[in-house]
Amino acid sequence: MNPRPFILIAFASLLLCLAGACVSVDDAAPEAPGQRKVNFDISVSRDGQLLGRGRSQTKGELVDAEDLLATMDTHRPFGLIGIEKGTNSVLIDNTPVYSNNAEYSGMFNALLWELPSTVQFSAYYPYVRGVEIESGQNTYSIPFSATETEAGPLVSKTVERAIDQLNTLPLDFHHITNDIGFKICDATPREELQGLIHLRRLTATNVASAGVYVNDMAVNRGNWNYQGYYRSVVVFQGDALLGVGTEEELFVGDSQLVSAKADSHRYYAIPDDLVMGKQCVEVVFDVDGFTLGEEPYAPLKDQVYKYMLYGLLPNNTFVPGKQYTFHIGVDLSSIYPEITFAPSVGDWETKIYENNEDF
């Protein structure tokens, strides 16, 4: 039993029951009887550097990177946690906070402002039900399904505020998943056989897509407890002629190859450990017919390469909050073993290699 007077314990319990009523601005008039409005100053940062703040910059999405790779859909609420410092009493228990015209604000029970103490706030995106706050601890667990993972989960830094300074609450979010994409080119070393490969399909297999994130508000750090749900992600489906060499390497889009990362098809995944023989990228491609010397070679359909990811990352582990672009070079030398191929030119390797950064 906490040594504080009973009246304060009862008051905190009352707040636990009443403070969870946060609604969108559209649903309640500002400063309704018994309620007070809180504005939220939202930002998303990459490796500690501010990338976007406040109002959305395009199509109702809050941009957190110049190339729009990772976005926060302001049509979806974020979840808010508030814990009284000292007693660890839960005052705001996974309350959804909504946006109106890309500006987040909400109405809270006015009794909250009468609490003579400091409150620690933490938020996450997107809002989900079933968040569990560990009793007596400043940690909470967020169960993200595959659908929520596809939205690009975020968690904010802990904000400590005296309750009477709660008119505007700044929340700085950061990414806790991985943003993954691909670049591809024709890496065939023999010049006469270059420019013949058509990408038809690219699929990432065994992508970790659901799990529980445990956030520790005291240290602004968390970890994933993976629940074992994997899926395959079809990144590309179409017919695109591969450029030759790294000079003509392009990002992989939904149905075409593109020069800008922002236009490519990327997906979010829960950070996972790479296991030998498990995660791979499957590339399906066609080869145009050609004549070499006087020998004709017929066109080939639905050729398959499987590029295994094991061994490509340090410690075979994806790091939370990192963006990964894997580079694929398709080489015809294994398709035509009877043809003599010269060694690859330059520093290009006919395998995926990793190029990651914070996002």
Topology of this structure?
Layout: H1 6-18, E1 35-46, E2 49-53, E3 61-63, E4 71-73, E5 78-84, E6 90-97, E7 99-100, E8 103-109, E9 118-125, E10 132-133, E11 139-144, H2 146-149, E12 154-156, E13 159-162, E14 168-175, E15 178-186, E16 197-216, E17 221-241, E18 250-252, E19 257-258, E20 267-269, E21 280-287, E22 290-292, E23 295-297, E24 300-308, E25 322-330, E26 354-358
Parallel strand pairs: 1-14, 15-25
Antiparallel strand pairs: 1-2, 1-8, 3-4, 5-6, 5-9, 7-8, 9-12, 9-13, 10-11, 11-16, 12-14, 15-18, 15-20, 16-17, 16-21, 18-19, 21-24, 22-23, 25-26
Radius of gyration: 26 Å
Question: What is the number of strand segments?
Answer: 26
Could you say which structural class the secondary elements and strand pairing correspond to?
A: mainly beta
The coarse overall form would be elongated
What count of helical segments does DSSP give? 2
Averaged pLDDT: 79
> Tell me about the biggest sheet?
10 strands, mixed
Strand content: over 45%
